[in-house]
Each structure stands twice: as structure tokens, then as C-alpha cells.
Amino acid sequence: MLWSTALAVALGSGLAVAEAKIDSREGVPTGAPPVKADIDRRSPRRGDLATAALQTIAVVAPTKSPRTTGTFEKIGTTEFDTADFDPLAPEVGNRPSEPIAEHGASVDADPVVEPRFERAAAGTGLRLPIKEGAPDDGLIARRLPLRLTIPRTDPYFPSASDPAARAYGQLAQFQLPGGVREGTRETEREAAAPLPSDLTFAYAYGTDSELAYRKDADLNKAVRDNSTTFAPTLFGFVDYRPTAWLEARLEATLEALIPVHEEKQVTLPSGDIVFPDQKTRTSLLVDQAYVTIKNITAPFEFTAGRRNFEDPRLWLYDAALDAFIVKLKQGEFQTEASVSRENLWDLDLIRNVPRGRVDNYIWYTEYRGIEDHRLAGYAIYRFDNAQPSQEGRPLFMGVRAYGRPSDAFNYWTELGIVRGKDELRQKLSGHAFDVGFTYRFPELALSPNFTLGYAFGSGDGNPADNTNTAFRQTGLQSNETRFGGVVQFKLYGEALDPELSNLQIFTAGVGFRPLANVFVDLVYHRYRLNRIAEELRGSAITALMNQGDTPPSKEVGSEFDVILGFRNLFGLRRFGVEVRAGWFFPGSAFLRNDGDQDNPIIRKPNKGVSILAVFIW
Questions:
Q1: How many Å apart are CA 559 and CA 492, to the nearest integer?
Q2: Based on the domain organization, do 560 and 615 belong to the same domain?
Q3: Are residues 50 and 166 in the same domain?
Q4: DSSP 8-class letter at 185
Q5: The pTM is what?
Q6: Which of 57, 86, 250, 455 could form a disulfide with 434 if both were Cys (CB 3.0 to 4.6 A apart)?
Q7: 301 vs 297: CA distance, rounded Å
């Protein structure tokens, strides 16, 4: 018997619940398209019982017992807290009919790919709308039910043929309780005390503690700079929706950063000496605290407070910003405009957090008029108020397209430019693109898939002039995505982890599923400079390139990543482990001179290693 988090929420808040029969052989796939199943009150299927808190509906008892049918839609969303649309966290998947109301919670629906509460209430959305039937049907829906969330495997569009989906089948059936007879005490109680129509209170909590190991970030094993840290984490949120036009969220994270192994001092390749913090640091940070007003202000929605800004590939932003946001839904176009600042207020209740100095002005519009495709355009202006400036005043503009025209195939396309001024007040004039696709073979053994991608960010060939032609990303991004598995990882490499600036990156990946609860991705990257340079912008590798008497080279190197995802380990539901390991093999651009100018000693660099293990409960 599987009990959902939503049941606990409902019982704790005194709301009614509805039972849903789910066949254990089917479950609810991660990333399934809308699938409809009839519900016959007279012929329920056997299966495990999963209980979900639903938004209550009004039931009208018929004079006879006709067949009652309903619709069970399974759709995919991003890992973000989305309602029908959020340009900062665009919904993906086949677009359902316009919702009347939506609410978020968690449900134990998938016995293998466990519901994982992520910091933005991530997951695949489940909608259980009961469709109004013939006049003599026994059930008439007056409100839409609760939106439930479980994880998904595809960051763009869901698929019934996904490897992660096929293991659980395509359908899940549920049965509503039988109708009550007229003239009974049940009917009298129903008339005297109608059930509530909204889930006004919800909460969830979880942990995703991390163990991180990094070796030879300077690509020189003769220098001691290895580190190991452990970060146990507990986080959760509370949602409150007293009316259909008002909703609020409070989300916080309690974390301790424990240095398991840190050197007392580290000499960087630049010659600078840093002293790693060897003390445990504890924080209790308010990640989100916002209020949204909607419906009565339609077609506009207004949000004020601290909120997560995230896009599907986290290529533009992945940050909690203190913001004022306005949304507009107009036909197939949906737009969001905001003004924000990171850490406008210090909301860490334990330690002091420096207040941000960069103002962000974001505009994002998405077009949804083409089925299974999304087209979007954006403009992001960042104004650094600090003196001296660290970010400058860049203006990012771009268009993007992503979609899933078939169950086996999805693609992405990013085209961007940067204008404005850099931190040295030079004119910015860079450009970039990132294109790729994933193809799946769900009918084959191990459900394999493969991914190909190519990304380009322009460099600056003449730093001495007044124009900086190097592309740079917004500074709010984290560059993380999924290909075919359940684990989100660094899309440009776990070890190198560069910003898309002055780089050409070729990516090839294969994925498969050796066991029902094990997901594997193997990813290869090849890096090459666009222009000769000494360092990579935003990279986790600290080594410098093209130093001293070494011949100039554009060959940055290559990387091999292994991504593993485990769910329901040791038979424990909700317990999962993710492992993200990367080995960076530097190219000739990182050759170093261990001698001097008169007696050069040219040595090959050592490889850099990064391993991250995440423990989920």
C-alpha cells in the first residue's frame, strides 16, 4: 500500500481525499504524454492503492447507476514550480485544456523513479480532471482536481516511449467512490456540509545532501589543492492559497558545509595564495518567500518577493532573486517581465550574506501555437551598481526553440548575443549558439538513447581595442540538464564546467538503463578555443593556458563524464543516490613551463577530476 505525501497533507489540513487505484505493473511513467483511461464504477481493476489529496468536486447523485467515465491525464513539466505557464520555468509537454485551478503537491505514483522534492517543487505533473459527461452521468465536475508532481526524465517534452516511462506502462486507472443513495444520511451530510473546493494549505520537505571531491583543479599534481566537502541539507516549503486569486510560498534550506579535507593554503597558477576555510559553515536560508495575485487581475498576474528563476536547461538563469514580476497570457503568446536583484535582503537566519549590487531587468516571451514545439525570445539587462564594477552593464538578447516532434526525438536550439558594456567599460559584441538533439530506442534492450550537441561562444581576438567580442553568459546560469536519464548534470562537463565563452564544444552522449531502478549516462566533450586566450571564463579549472615559452594553442582538451542515477536503493522508497563524475584531459593549451626563460622545462598537464554524490530522501 503506497501512501502519498499528499495524503498526509490532506489529513493534516482536514481536507477530504479521493482514492486512486493504480496498477503496480503500470505505475505512472516519468515523462508520459496525455493518456486517457475510462473509469467504470462497476468494474475496478485490482492494484496497489495510492491515495492522493484532490481538490474536492461536487457530486450529484443520479436517479440510476450509469457508467461513470473520467480522464486521467499524465503530462510533463520542467522541474520547476509552474502552473499553466511560467516563462522563467516553462511548462513542457502537450498542452492541456485551459485549467480552472491548479495546485501543487507530491504523490507516490512511480515505484521506481521516486518523487523527488526539488527546491522548486520539481516533477512531472499529473492532472486528474473529471470530464463532464452525458446529462445522466453520475459525476459532474465543477472544479479541476489537484495537480500532483513526480519527477520526469526529459527536460523538454514527455514521452510514452521513454525508457523511463516504458518500465511502468502507459496507463493508470482510478476509481471514484460509489455514489450515495438519495435519502440517506450521507446525502443529508453532503447537503448540509459541502466539501471544500480548494486545497488551501500544502507542505513538503526533503534532503539532497552532497559529498563533493575535486582533484588537481590546477592540473598539476605537484601542487596540493585537493578538497573533499560534505553538505548535509534539509529543505522544505509551505504553500498557502486562501482564495483562488491569492497564493503564497515560503521555502527554506538548512545546510552545513563541512570541510572533510582542505589544504591550509593553496597556491594558484596565477601566483595568488588562498587560504581555504576549514571551519564548518551553517546556514538557514530563505530560498523563496513570495505572494502571487492572479485570476481577478486576468490576463495579468503579479508576484512580489523572493522567487526561483529557472529555465529548462538553466542556460539563462538558475537563481533565487528578490523580484517584482508581471505575467501576461494572451492567446498563444505568454510573456513575463520582471525587475530583480540577488540578495536584495539578507534572508539567512544564521550567517550574514553580502547584499547584491546587480539589478536585473528580464523580459521573456514564449509562443505555443505549434504543437510539441516551443519558440521563445528574451532580453536580460544587468546593471552592476558596485564600484569597481564586476559584471559591467551587459544586455543579453536571444531566441530559442525546443521541442519533441516524436516520442523518440527531442531537440534544442539557443541563439544569443551580448551587447552593452563590460566591467572595463569596453563595448560588448559577442554571439553564441547551442544546438543538439537526443534520440531514443525504447524498443531495444536496455532502452538506449544517444545525444549529439555543438555549442559555440565567440572570443575576443584583440583585447587591446575598445570592443570585447567575447560572448558571456548572464552570470545567473548553472548550465545543467538531463539527456536520457533521471540525473541532472553539468551540460558542458562536470570537471571543466566552463561558461560558454570563447569556446567551441562538441558533445556526444549515450544512455541506457541496466536495471529498473538504475540510469546511466556516458558523456564525452571536446573543447577548442575560438581565440587564443590565457584562461577560461567561469571554469572550475584554475590552470592558466598558453603561458611563457609554450607554443600558443587552441586545444583545450576533452572530458569524459559518467552519470549514474539510483532509485529505491535497498528497497527503501524515496531513497536515491546520484553520482556525477568527470575526468578532464587537458590539451596542448595547458602545457606549462616548470623551468625558466633560459632553461625551459615544458611539462604536460595532469588531468582534473570532479566527483559529486547526492543522497536523496
A1: 9
A2: yes
A3: yes
A4: H
A5: 0.72
A6: 455
A7: 6
